[in-house]
Amino acid sequence: MPSDNHCPEPLQLRLSHQDYARYVIHDKSDPPTYNDIIEAFEKEFAEFNRKLYGVEFHDGEGFVELQDSPEQIAIFYEHISLDESTSPRRRKVVLRSRQNTPEHLKRDVISVDAIVDAAVCLHEKLGKVLKMKLRVEQCKSVLIVTKPQDPSIVPLTRKLAIWFLNNHSSDVYVNDHMETNPDFAYADMISSECVGHLAESRLKFWTAGWVKEHSREIGLVVTMGGDGTVLYAAGLFQQAVPPVVTFHLGSLGFLTNFQFEEYPKALAQIMSGHGSPTTFRQRLDCTLYKSHEEAPRSSHSSRILVCKRHLISRTENGCITCEMPPTGPPDFNTQVMNELVLDRGANAGLLMLELYADDMYLTTIQADGLVIATATGSTAYSLSAGGSLVYPEKTALLITPICPHTLTCRPMILPSRVRLRVCVSPNSRVPAWVSFDGRDRMELQKTDSVIITASRYPLLQICHGDRKDDWFRSLVSSLHWNEREGQKPLL
What CATH number is attached to the domain comprising 304? Predict the structure, then answer.
C-alpha cells in the first residue's frame, strides 16, 4: 500500500445501520480494508448480514457505494478527513449500510415464484417505509411561509419567529416584506432586551431567489395560511423539498392539519427528535415543448397535413409531429403538487388534445380542457371536474377531462410510472392555455406539447396524528363528506 495512505492518527468510523449508529476507532497504521469495514458492521450490529447489506461512505456531498475494488478503496481513502477539534487528533469517515438489490430483481426474465416473491417483498418494504417516522432535530434554517396580503397573519408570524429564536438555535427566515411591515415591528424586535440579540443575528428575510440558491440549507418549512400557501411553498423548491409543517389559517384545509393555537406543543414535539408521522405526497415533473417549425400544408387545402388519425390523407410531405415525441431542449419545466390544467381560455370553441402514454396514442380528447392531477390534487380541480378521491400516498396520475364533448370520455387513473404526453392537435380550432398549480399560465399553439412524469422530488408533510386520520378528517371538515339529513321512517 502506498505510504501516503498510511494513517498516523487514529481513524474514527461512524457506522450507521437502520436507526442506530456506532463509533469505532481503527488505530492501525494502515487504513481499513473493505473486509475490515464489513467486519466492523457485523461486530457492532447483530442484524447486519453481508449477503443482504452493502456499505456506503460519505464523500463530502453525498453517499457513494463502497465496493471491494482498488479504485473504490482509493476513492474512499481520499475522503478520510482530519478532525482538528479533537485531542488527540483523529481522522474520521462516515459510513452507512445499504440493502442490496436481490439477484432476481437484476434480471429481466425470471420465474413465476421469483416475480411473486419480488412483488410481495416490494409491497412489504413500501408499507414499512410509509410507516417510518421522520426525525427532525436541530436544523440550520427554518423557513416560514405565510399567506400573502393577509394582515391578520403578520403578528402571528412575529410570535412564531420569536418562539423559534427562544427555543432553538436555527436561523429563522420570514418573507422579505415583513422587514418593513409595521405589524411585524422588526425594529422593535431587535431593540428588545429579551430577543434583540437573537433577532439581530438569526432572524433573516427570504426571497424566492434566495430559496432557490440555498434550498439545501433549509431543514424545515412552516406554512401559515391555507392550501394555496402550501402549494406556493412547495413550488419554491424545484428539487428536494424539506419537511413541511402546515398551520391552518386559510379557507380550505385539505393540506393544513395543525391549528395555530397549538404551535408551541406541536413544534416542540416535532423538533424533539423523537420522530413524527409523515404523509408522502407525490409531485409531477412537467416539461413543455413549443413547436418551433411551421407545419407543412397541403396544396389542395389550407388544413395541416397530419396522420390518418386526423382523417386527412397523407402525402410524402405529411406532418408527423403529432406522432413523434419532442426532442431538443425544453421551453419550460416545473414541479407541481396538485395538477396541471389545460383549458381553452377565453375561446368559445372546444380544444382537441391528443393523449399519449409511453408514446402510445390513447385518444383525442375534445373538451373544454383537461386536468392531470396527483392524488393530492384529487380533492381540487379534478374533483370539481368529476374525478375520483384518491388517498394522498397513492402514487398515480389522474386524468380528468373538463366537460368532454362525448359521454364516453371518462376520467382515468394510471400508475405513476407511465410517461404522459399531451399535444395540442394540429386540427384543434383554438389554442390551449396551460397552468401549473395555478401558476405560470401560458398559451400553447397547435402541436405544442407537455410531458408529465412522476417527480423524483416528493413532499414530506408532517402529520398531526395518524396519517389516515388526517386525510379522512379533512374530507369531513372540508367537504362535509357524505353528510345529509337522515331518512325518515316509512311509517
Answer: 2.60.200.30
